[in-house]
Amino acid sequence: MREYIGIDIGGTKCAVVRGDESGRILEKRSFPTTDRANTLEQIFEHTGQIITDRTKAIGVSCGGPLDSKTGVILGPPNLPGWDYVPVTEYLTERFHLPAYLENDANACAVAEWRFGAGKGCENLIFLTFGTGLGAGLILDGKLYRGACGMAGEVGHVRLFPEGHTGYGKAGSYEGYCSGGGIAQYGLGSARELADKARAGDPRALAVWEQTGRNLGRLLAILMDILNPDVIVIGSIYARAGDLMQEACEQILTAEVLEPSLRACRVVPALLGESLGDVAALSVAMGIRE
């Protein structure tokens, strides 16, 4: 069976995994993200330790901005100093294998489409709902990147005239439907607020109700415009979706065209804690456009 190397580059930690074409993880190495030079050296070192003669390609999943066509990382805000990093060129030179780079939201969309909650469907939207908010779009069975690779930046869309800041914009969806946005209520992290809500704390419950309503407004726009089969939501939604579900569904019922609502499922990511690993492997396997 073919094997691949997947590299998941995050703002606080990185992972290098070896897996097969079924999406099964065979080996994994994790380490903290530090400065650019040291992190790249760690990536090369761990890749060299787990690569085998069965490895066919290397995939890199990383937050944007980036250029997937040229394989260059272009200064993501969570990776200071990574202003122009031709990471696929580095990997190919070192390991003599094809290497590919993809935005992490797109990579997760492909992973859930191939191996997770969207398996078998033609139209899928994946929402990150982690520290930030972004989307990956599978439309008519292909990844959709847009004219300049910026499709799916839903966190930058305005929700309110002013308010919480996310993606550099006050009042944006990322300012309300993300871990960073939820923290701006000043009542604790998303994880802490979930614990408080389940213990009956009224202020925490109110935050989750409002978050559910805000999320519902975003999902309504996506359903009416793109008419997906399924919307898969990761990270915080996978852990606390039950606290938002009722409020979210009320908005969807009120706002979405009935045939579009009936056709679409809203579900948590199925791949769970392994999503980032499988996403990087999916990049290595190649992505249909």
TrEMBL record:
Keywords: Kinase, Transferase. InterPro entries: ATPase_NBD, ROK. It comes from the Bacteria. Signal peptide: none annotated. One of its GO terms (molecular function) is kinase activity. PANTHER family: BIFUNCTIONAL UDP-N-ACETYLGLUCOSAMINE 2-EPIMERASE_N-ACETYLMANNOSAMINE KINASE, ROK (REPRESSOR, ORF, KINASE) FAMILY. Belongs to the ROK (NagC/XylR) family. This is Glucokinase. It comes from Enterocloster lavalensis. The lineage of its organism: Bacteria, Bacillati, Bacillota, Clostridia, Lachnospirales.
